[in-house]
Design a protein that fits this description.
alpha+beta; two-stranded parallel ribbon; two-stranded antiparallel ribbon
Length: about 110
């Protein structure tokens, strides 16, 4: 599925705001990548599907991850008609020294 520029921009804005709010970090620390047009098979079909990875330095946990999964799935359903049953998201809680930014690490 190829996503048009307007829809892509809307998804990036919505997802950035949602992730920042749910994790409790400023939007300036949130980066979203949307890579459309990549072939994907899910549950044996090529119907619309998505895979995501979310990396954070702290702020993750069972409750937060559930809310993130729910919210991102809702964005994908509304903007791309991807059913939540066709979306996986993997969460990583990264130690500060394992994440680089601005020529250093956190």
């Amino acid at each position: 599925m190829v996503v048009d520029a307007v829809t892509c921009s809307d998804i990036l804005k919505d997802a950035t705001k949602a992730v920042a709010k749910i994790i409790g970090k400023p939007e300036s620390y949130v980066m979203i990548l949307l890579n459309s047009g990549v072939p994907i098979a899910f549950a044996g079909t090529e119907e619309p599907a998505a895979y995501g990875e979310l990396i954070s330095i702290g702020g993750l946990g069972a409750g937060v991850n559930g809310k993130l999964s729910e919210t991102i799935a809702e964005i994908l359903q509304i903007k791309l008609s991807i059913d939540s049953s066709r979306f996986y998201i993997k969460f990583y809680d990264s130690p500060r020294p394992f994440f680089g930014f601005n020529g250093s690490t956190f």
